[in-house]
Design a protein that fits this description.
7-stranded mixed β-sheet
Length: 272
């Protein structure tokens, strides 16, 4: 067999073995399903996307669509509210909370959208190729001058190419059941470009340990809620308004985060 065929064969064998013969907890089966799906789909899909389409903004929707299908195997049900708020014409900035790599399962990516992420991703094997295919905008967080230049580039590019940019203003993955303070650079770029901001809030989907019976935590909760809030206009705002804009957006999203998490807990208690 060729290397590609051997890789695919071994991954499938490993996946079947863990799924059907493992006596470990459910978390391992879910983890293998997710990461196995990622690797197999990357091997099967990425070469064709690269060969036929090259590096294009529109590729991101294709890659995310393929990855999202694993949610059916994981048993994850995602409810989205406020999708109509993404129908805003012209460029805008999506600000979202960031928990884990499982965020890719969200079904709310708008058209002509690029992702702002950390520069280190391009050195992480397959993720580097995904960044190239989807034309990610990569930020060097350790170089303040470079980071400022990147944010200026975002402001210009959004207007020139009529793009939307997806950013995680917390600046890192957050595994706690709250939101971290927001970085102000993304809000400065939105104000400079005079484009609206659309907040997207995903409920806390990480399952805490079940201390009662000693079981390990599940990979993720089976039910997620995603709330897309109405746009926040930046037209007429200046650099002096950026701190207040960042803080008010964080408070709005935190209130929404707590509210939708409360709905999930209430629904669970009602069922029980």
């Amino acid at each position: 067999m060729e290397l590609f065929e051997w890789t695919l064969f071994l991954l499938i064998v490993l996946l079947i073995g863990v799924l059907f013969f493992s006596q470990r907890s459910d978390v391992y089966r879910k983890m293998v399903l997710f990461y196995g799906w990622m690797v197999v789909m990357f091997i099967l899909v990425s070469p064709w996307v690269a060969l036929i389409r090259g590096s294009r903004v529109e590729n991101l929707k294709i890659l995310c669509f393929v990855m999202r299908q694993v949610r059916y195997l994981l048993g994850v049900k995602i409810t989205v509210h406020g999708s109509e708020n993404l129908n805003t014409k012209g460029p805008y900035m999506v600000v979202a909370n960031h928990q884990t790599i499982l965020d890719v399962l969200a079904e709310v990516l708008p058209d002509r959208c690029v992702i702002l992420s950390k520069k280190e991703l391009k050195y992480m094997g397959p993720m580097g190729i995904v960044c190239w295919l989807g034309k990610f905008i990569l930020l060097d967080r350790n170089n303040k001058r470079s980071a400022r230049e990147t944010m200026d580039h975002i402001a210009r590019t959004l207007l020139q190419q009529n793009l939307r940019v997806w950013v995680y203003p917390e600046g890192t993955r957050n595994r706690t059941a709250t939101l971290l303070p927001f970085k102000r650079g993304v809000f400065s770029a939105a104000v400079k470009a005079q484009i609206p901001i659309i907040p997207v809030v995903t409920s806390y989907y990480q399952q805490p340990p079940n201390l009662k019976d000693g079981q390990r935590p599940f990979f993720c909760r089976d039910k997620w809620i995603i709330q897309i809030l109405p746009k926040i206009e930046t037209r007429g705002l200046g650099p002096e308004d950026v701190p207040a804009l960042a803080d008010s957006t964080q408070k709005l999203m935190l209130d929404t985060f707590n509210e939708i998490n409360g709905h999930i807990v209430l629904e669970k208690d009602t069922r029980e």
